């Protein structure tokens, strides 16, 4: 289904103002999803938090220093590299914190993704988690159709990813017949595979009217 023109049922839901809050359990792990803001350096690696089951930021090693970014691409910390820190290699696609992970130890996350334990200081990690919580905890409202989509394991997208799409996606022409609608198209990765995420909102981005995603190689979503 394309969101260029919404079905009458979804349009009526958006216009009526009848919305639902979504407080259910995630249909699949949020750690599988990623939207990477363009201003984050290409060589910065994701930081996966095993306790929160999410990518919570990015870390870059440059000039003997570590640079830490939050999910919006804002730098949150800089510290000098330690001599006993194992250099991050190409085979280390992500850094991992939380859980039973120890610094400089390579292994697989609970999602079976390879990574290496980060030597990040506890205070720095606490700051990164605080930034993430501010993005993920702010409630969103959903139309009945979007609410149903959130409970579908094959179509679900985490709340913080929807918010990142609004902040960093391209704003495009919204569907007609929905007053005050906005529409965003954003590059998203699921298990590091590129997708396009299409989100339609209203009420100043407070309400999700509908959303969908499809593999980036395809020019249009599946029918």
From TrEMBL:
Superkingdom field: Bacteria
Name of protein: Uncharacterized protein
Species the sequence originates in: Cupriavidus campinensis
Lineage of origin: Bacteria, Pseudomonadati, Pseudomonadota, Betaproteobacteria, Burkholderiales
